């Protein structure tokens, strides 16, 4: 199994998710048009990260105009759990997987468990294949 995800420390999660005010989902410019002609805007209206539960919550709004003229407007509240590296390791172990390697940012650099910045964690794990030779 190859697992690739954003591994946030509390410091990086606070920096990324604790925001007030309106911002575009795609950077400063929140407008876009896709290859089929659907256009729209994505806006975020702030968020908060709780280091005790490791859950962040944010509000967002989408306003789309499809290529056939249909307008879709949607406001949502999003939730995201930011697992610790230990939690991910425990989940993999509970699923019967053995961790082979853990890297940082698509390199062969080991992932430092105390890393304060957000990194791309890549974990290689495998499940053992066992059989009874007497029954084969």
Label this structure with key terms.
extended, 8 strands, 136 residues, three-stranded antiparallel β-sheet, five-stranded antiparallel β-sheet
Helix and strand layout, with pairings?
Elements: E1 2-7, H1 10-17, E2 23-24, E3 31-33, E4 39-50, E5 55-65, E6 71-81, H2 85-94, E7 97-104, E8 119-127
Antiparallel strand pairs: 1-8, 2-4, 3-4, 4-5, 5-6, 7-8
Question: Mind explaining what this structure looks like?
Answer:
With 136 residues, the protein is mainly beta. It has two domains: 57 residues, no CATH class; 71 residues, Single Sheet (N-terminal domain of TfIIb). It contains two helices and eight strands; from the N terminus they run βαβββββαββ. The strands form two sheets. Strands 2, 3, 4, 5 and 6 form a five-stranded antiparallel beta sheet that branches. It is extended. The two termini are 27 Å apart. 8% of the residues are buried.
């Amino acid at each position: 199994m190859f697992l690739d995800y954003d591994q946030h420390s509390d410091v990086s999660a606070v920096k990324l998710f604790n925001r007030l005010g309106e911002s575009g989902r795609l950077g400063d410019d929140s407008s876009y048009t896709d290859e089929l002609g659907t256009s729209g805007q994505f806006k975020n209206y702030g968020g908060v990260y709780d280091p005790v539960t490791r859950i962040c919550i944010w509000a967002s709004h989408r306003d789309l105009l499809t290529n056939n003229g249909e307008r879709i407007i949607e406001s949502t509240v999003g939730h995201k759990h930011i697992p610790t590296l230990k939690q991910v390791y425990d989940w993999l172990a509970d699923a019967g997987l053995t961790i082979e390697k853990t890297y940082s940012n698509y390199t062969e650099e080991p992932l430092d468990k105390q890393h304060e910045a957000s990194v791309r964690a890549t974990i290689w794990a495998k499940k053992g294949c066992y059989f009874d030779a007497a029954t084969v």
